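User: As part of a screening pipeline, I want to sanity-check one entry by hand. Below is the sequence and the SMILES for adenosine-5'-diphosphate. Please return the complex as C-alpha cells so I can compare it with the automated output.
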Amino acid sequence: MIKLEHVTKIYPGTTSPAVDDLSFTVPTGEICTIVGPSGCGKTTTMKMVNRLIEPTDGEIYVLNERGEMQNVLEMDPIILRRNIGYVIQQIGLFPHRTILQNMGTVPKLLEWDNTRIRSRAEELLDMMNMPHEFLDRYPHELSGGQRQRIGVARAMASDPPVMLMDEPFGAIDPINRNLLQNEFLRLQQEIKKTILFVTHDIDEAIKMGDKIAILNANGQLEQYDSPAKILSEPANEFIEDFVGADRTLKQLNLIRVEEVMDKKPFLLQSTQSVEEALQVMDEEGQDYAYVVDSDRRLQGYVSRKDLKEKSGWIDEYTTTAATSLPITMNLRDALSEMLMVDYSTICVVDNRDRVRGTVNTAMVQEALMETHSSGKREEV
Ligand SMILES: Nc1ncnc2c1ncn2[C@@H]1O[C@H](COP(=O)(O)OP(=O)(O)O)[C@@H](O)[C@H]1O
Ligand SMILES: [Mg+2]
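Assistant: Here is the complex for your manual check:
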C-alpha cells in the first residue's frame, strides 16, 4: 500500500544524505513505525510520501483511487495530499480557527457542504471520546492531550485510506500518551488504515507498530521487521543498544492477557448458598473465589475465612474487587496492575465487564520464558 524503493534524499547544499537508499513496504491496513534518533530522517521520509519533499533518487508508490500502485511523482500532488491524512509533528492546529474549522480543512477543499462537515466532525469526536461542544472552541482552550486527539481526528476527517503520523503523541505526558496509544490502537482495529507512524520512542514504536523500521543517523535503515523479531533477533549492535537491555521485558508489550489467561477459571455464582460455596471451595482447594452474576459479570470475591460458619447467600459476603483487567491489555500493563494489588489472581473481563478468565504473575512469567526460549514470536 505504501512502497519505498531505494529512496534517497540529499538536501541542497548538504553532502551527506538525510535519507539513504531506503526501501520498505507498508502492507494495507497495517501500522509501520519509523523510529530512530533525532535528525535521522524520519520526518523527511514521511514528507516524501505526500510530496511535501521530493526524493533525490528512488521511487515511492501508493495505492491510488483506482486501486493500483502508482508512483507518487506521477500523481497530482494536491489530490495525493487529500487522499493521505497527515498528522504533523507538534500537532499544528490553526490557532485562530475553531476546532470545527480545523477539522473541516480537507473536507472543505473537497467541497463538502457544511452539514456534512459538521456531522463528520461530530462522528470523529465521538470516536475519540470528546464532547461535541469542542467544535466551537479554539485550540488554546483545549488541553495538550485533547489537541493531540484533534490533530489525529483532523487527519482522519475525509476518511483517507493512508495516514502519515509524525510523532502524533509526542507533546504530552506519559500517562495521557499511554491512554491515547491504547485508544488509537482500539480505533485502528475498526478503521484499518495503512499508517506510517513516526516516533523517537522505541517503546511507542514497539507498541504501535505491526512493523518497525529503525533508522540510524544519515537515514540508514538498520532493521525492518516485526516488533517481536526486533526484540528477539536484533540485527546488529546498534539495534541492541537502541532497543535497550530490557528487551525481554519489552516483549511483554506484544502479548495480550487473553493469550495467557486461564480461560476456565474457578468462579462462584452470586446466587449460590454459603454452604454450597464452602463445599466447592474445599473441593477445589481455593481460599478465595471470584463471584459473578448470571451474565458472568464480575461482582467481587469471597474468602473462605469470611464464609466460615455463616449461612445464607454468598452475595452478602462478597467484597468488591479492587481491579480487573480488560481482555485486550498487554502483559506489561497487566503486570504493573498486578503488582499494585496483592491479589494472587486477577479477573480478565470483556468490554461488558463479563469475566473471560483469570491471570496471575506465574502465567506472565511462563509466557515470558516461552517467548525467550523459542527466540522468536511471530504471531502477536
Ligand atoms: N529543509 C532542509 N534543508 C536542509 N537540511 C534539512 C532540511 N530538513 C531537514 N534537514 C536535515 O535532514 C536531516 C533529517 O531531518 P528530519 O527528517 O527532520 O529528521 P527527524 O524527523 O528524524 O528528526 C537532519 O540532519 C536535518 O537537519
Ligand atoms: Mg521529525
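Points to compare against the pipeline: Residues 174-191 form the longest helix (18 residues). The mean pLDDT is 90.
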